[in-house]
UniProtKB/TrEMBL annotation:
Residues 114-123 have a biased composition (Pro residues). One of its GO terms (molecular function) is electron transfer activity. It comes from Frigoriflavimonas asaccharolytica. Residues 109-137 are annotated as: Disordered. Residues 124-137 have a biased composition (Low complexity). It holds the Pfam family Cytochrom_C. The chain crosses the membrane at residues 144-161, 199-221. Residues 18-116 form the Cytochrome c domain. This is Cytochrome c2. The keyword Phosphoprotein does not apply. Keywords: Heme, Iron, Membrane, Metal-binding, Transmembrane, Transmembrane helix. The keyword Membrane applies. PANTHER family: CYTOCHROME C7-LIKE DOMAIN-CONTAINING PROTEIN, LIPOPROTEIN CYTOCHROME C.
């Protein structure tokens, strides 16, 4: 205890040189890709590094300054400890930071020595707008269905009650005067209003047929479908809060027919250095431990050992539940829409939805994915839905390729479709041909 006290006293002036608040910002901006305060990642844990180096190697902050600014040069000078660290961490070269001033490094060291207490968690952010909207629509639909069912149930109860009365009358060997009058009056009423009754029954039959047909038409339409996944992944946190580009994970959407489910190695590109969740955003009912637990599932799936910072080779495949799935007889090319149709689709969507504009082409079909905690199917994805898009989306004629390719066609279409005011939609260039989408 005396030794530790003397060490702290002897190094106290060093700790007073930096600003821990500014150091925290610099640490998160420059160091968190490879370092944490309390555990080893790609590099060693940096909590208490000043005192540790002083005690173990008798090195002061001047050595740390040299290492941070240009560790390669420090190793080339023959510095023994610098080369030992390089060998110990599998000869992984640390990034050079010549842009950091001495004051910046002192601030970072102050943060590693005396980190400020964490800020209190913010009030939980409400669930995403897309999910809230869907739940509102579902609630209204449920009320309509409930009222309709109650009305039908009431009619059936009344009908059953009347039939019960008639059955009792038929079972009676002798009709009382009152029953005779009731039976006679019912027969007269039926005979008098039989035409009206048949019309009502016919209308009910038509209504029932329409309901059945409408039900058939919506088979395979799963708008609002949002299944639970084996590993919880919030697009709100990744694409929304952290602004990660969709195509960083779904890279084949730009270059191929299918937008693939990212492999777990794509997740590990970031989570190799992010073993726990420290973000400010928290969903209602979830804490940081929940998100950290999901990150550990990624490690289990990929066979990543945190302690040794290496792969064990023991992997565990993840069985994701697919959400968007085109029928086999439908041809849909993501690249064609993401690349060639990007500006046209975004422009068309924003014209039709001025209060719900998008900035990424993916959102036109998949909804505002960057606000979804649990991904759901945001649109119908029916044939009619696709055709309507082709009818209303104008071809981007500011594109140099399109200008050259459609130069002759443009004038022809103006004459053929004078009401279009010279606008070329996708339907006018073959977007309505069956063979474009069906084999």
């Amino acid at each position: 205890m005396i030794t530790i006290a003397l060490l702290l006293v002897s190094t106290a002036p060093i700790y007073a040189q930096g600003d821990a608040k500014n150091g925290e910002k610099l640490f998160k901006a420059n160091c968190t890709a490879c370092h944490a305060l309390d555990k080893q990642l790609v590099g060693p844990a940096l909590g208490g590094v000043v005192a540790r180096l002083k005690a173990d190697q008798n090195l002061d902050t001047d050595w740390i300054h040299k290492w941070v600014k240009n560790n390669k040069e420090l190793r080339a000078s023959g510095d023994k400890y610098a080369n030992e660290v390089f060998e110990k961490f599998n000869k992984t070269e640390m990034q050079l930071f010549p842009n950091l001033q001495d004051k910046d490094i002192d601030d970072i060291l102050e943060y590693t020595t005396n980190p400020p207490p964490p800020e209190p968690d913010p009030v939980a952010t409400p669930v995403d707008g897309a999910a809230a909207g869907a739940s509102g629509e579902d609630s209204s639909t449920s009320k309509i269905i409930l009222v309709s069912l109650l009305a039908i149930a009431g009619l059936l109860i009344a009908l059953m009650f009347k039939i019960g009365q008639l059955v009792k009358l038929q079972q009676s060997e002798e009709l009382t005067a009152a029953n005779a009058r009731n039976a006679k009056s019912f027969a007269q009423i039926y005979e008098k209003y039989s035409v009206v009754g048949k019309i009502i029954l016919g209308a009910l039959a038509v209504f029932a047929f329409y309901g059945f047909w409408n039900w058939l038409m919506w088979i395979g339409v799963y708008k609002g479908y949002k299944p639970e996944q084996p590993i919880y992944f919030s697009h709100n946190i990744h694409a929304g809060v952290n602004k990660i580009d969709c195509q960083l994970c779904h890279s084949s959407a730009k270059y191929g027919k299918v937008s693939e489910i990212p492999s777990m190695n794509v997740c590990m590109n970031c989570h190799k250095m992010i073993p726990e969740y420290k973000g400010k955003y928290l969903e209602p009912g979830k804490d940081r431990d929940f998100y950290t637990g999901e990150i550990k599932k990624i490690y289990e799936a990929t066979g990543w050992d945190e302690a040794s910072q290496s792969y064990t080779g023991k992997t565990k495949p993840v069985q994701w539940t697919r959400i968007h799935n085109m029928p086999d007889f439908v041809y849909f090319n993501h690249a064609q829409h993401v690349v060639a149709g990007e500006q046209a689709i975004i422009s068309s969507h924003n014209k039709k939805n001025p209060d719900n504009k998008i900035d990424v082409v993916c959102k036109a079909c998949h909804g505002k994915i960057d606000t979804m905690n649990v991904v759901q199917m945001a649109n119908d994805f029916t044939m009619g839905w696709c055709i309507e898009c082709h009818r209303t989306t104008e071809v981007d004629m500011t594109n140099g390729y399109n200008q050259a390719y459609f130069s002759g066609l443009h004038d022809k279409l103006k004459k053929q479709y004078p009401s279009s005011n010279g606008k070329i939609t996708v339907s006018a260039i073959g977007g309505m041909e069956c063979g474009k989408c069906h084999y």
